[in-house]
Amino acid sequence: MTGIGMEAARALADKVEAFVRDVVAPYERDPRRDAHGGPGEDLILELRDKARAAGVLTPHILPDGSHLTQRETALVLAASGLSPLGPIACNTAAPDEGNMFLLGKVGSAAIRERFLTPLVAGRVRSCFFMTEPAAMQGAGSDPSMMITTCRRDGNHWLVNGHKCFSTGADGAGIGIVMARSEEPGTEGGACMFLVDLPDPAIRITHVPDTIDSSMPGGHCEVAIENLRIPADQMLGNAGEGFIYAQVRLAPARLSHCMRWLGACRRAHEIATDYANRRMGFGKLLIEHEGVGFMLAENMIDLKQAEVMIDWCADVLDAGNPGTVESSMTKVAVSEALMRIADRCVQVMGGTGVTDKTIVEQVFREIRAFRIYDGPTEVHKWSLAKKIRRDWRQSHAS
């Protein structure tokens, strides 16, 4: 990645930040929400029209189709994350941002033209069908357990199975489907396909209520029944789907960290303002050591999160797959941001658990983030296995 340079990236991030603070934040109490609390389609379209007019729609992808470096992206995505609505408005939200990255890296020219172009333009939303129901012992944190299958049928592939936690599937126009191949030579390997949505063969069976509410379309459960996909809508080659998933997941984990860093910066600002205005026991809350120390700890955790994000971004920009580094960063940043969000609620007391500010929403979103894209414990387990492998190699006779 060549990017635009850090100075230009900072200027772009400043532009995004001004847009999110001045234009997007006033919409945070807009009642146009879907049944699960996420922004409704009318609200999304209105915000994206404003972002397009302000020149900050999909700011991480340049007019020629190239992508900012990860280090540059960190500045821009953190700025978009200053409001829970910011990533949706600027078209930097999950799963679209990760899907755009993947299509730009792996998609054929025809796939990029048909599926990536409308995503970058903000005209449609997308979803990623990978996770499967625990009740069926399907793929979750362990993708090798995938039970959704695909088999060749002439010039098409036939897909059958079930998926869950398919974020944004309700209302999406594009889907990426992962399935385990039953074809000889690729048997057991995963395949990825691009599909137009809605499709009658992909049926939403349930949209659960969840702790978070920043993403449109809910976290859907779907049944896939005899879905016929033209062979030229396969992403890459048959049997290599797990490889492509890693192409997407390492940067996607980091992007989550970037966006939620912005949200926690804003929550910290709100808690700091509250503590500097609210009186208690004869003095401002900030002058009470218990409150002041919590805000001081927030400053430390915010800086540590920023440093981890920049370190992982540098690794990815250097061409390293970043699997280990992104796991370390996902754990460190999500746990640090959880501490920050929790302290912000605590500093604000009763006000912190109400909808008078976005602090309580940020707390809920960060709690979910500790699970999404791999729970903390799964990443630690993966890192522990690497420690074991490295030790064995270093002590091999």
From TrEMBL:
It comes from the Bacteria. It is an enzyme of class 1 (oxidoreductase). Keywords: FAD, Flavoprotein, Oxidoreductase. SUPFAM superfamilies: Acyl-CoA dehydrogenase C-terminal domain-like, Acyl-CoA dehydrogenase NM domain-like. Residues 239-386 form the Acyl-CoA dehydrogenase/oxidase C-terminal domain. InterPro entries: Acyl-CoA_dehydrogenase, Acyl-CoA_Oxase/DH_mid-dom, Acyl-CoA_Oxase/DH_mid-dom_sf, AcylCo_DH-like_C, AcylCo_DH/oxidase_C, AcylCoA_DH/ox_N_sf, AcylCoA_DH/oxidase_NM_dom_sf. GO terms for molecular function: flavin adenine dinucleotide binding; medium-chain fatty acyl-CoA dehydrogenase activity. It holds the Pfam family Acyl-CoA_dh_M. Residues 127-210 form the Acyl-CoA oxidase/dehydrogenase middle domain. Gene3D superfamilies: Acyl-CoA dehydrogenase/oxidase, N-terminal domain, Butyryl-CoA Dehydrogenase, subunit A, domain 2, Butyryl-CoA Dehydrogenase, subunit A, domain 3. Its cofactor is FAD. One of its GO terms (biological process) is fatty acid beta-oxidation using acyl-CoA dehydrogenase. Transmembrane segments: none annotated. Its EC number is 1.3.8.7. One of its GO terms (cellular component) is cytoplasm. Belongs to the acyl-CoA dehydrogenase family. This is Acyl-CoA dehydrogenase.
